[in-house]
Structures are given as structure tokens and as C-alpha cells.
Amino acid sequence: MGRPAAVVLYVLAMVAVVIGVDILFFRHHFWPRLAVNVGIVLVFGAFYFRFLKH
Length: 54
What we know:
Order of helices and strands: HH
Number of helices: 2
Largest sheet: none
Structural class: mainly alpha
Radius of gyration: 13 Å
Number of domains: 1
């Protein structure tokens, strides 16, 4: 698998986690949902830059 395909899979995994958390826990709460979504993106970004970027 090439590098672009791995990045696409990584982004799809991030999107799946964000949508799953939104649906399961924060369906009717706008501000907590926004804060958790930003946190998830930051964690995924930190993990990417720490472990996956060469």
C-alpha cells in the first residue's frame, strides 16, 4: 500500500471516530460535541506527526 492510500485510510478512520462519538454520546449537545470533535482531530493530528510522518 502506498503512502497516499495510508493517509486516506487514516483520515477515514478519524472521520469514523468523530461520527461515531457524535451519534453515540453528543447528539443534542452542540458545544460539548464541538469541543470533543476538535479534541479528537488534535489527538489524531498529534499521533500522525509523532509516529507516522517521516
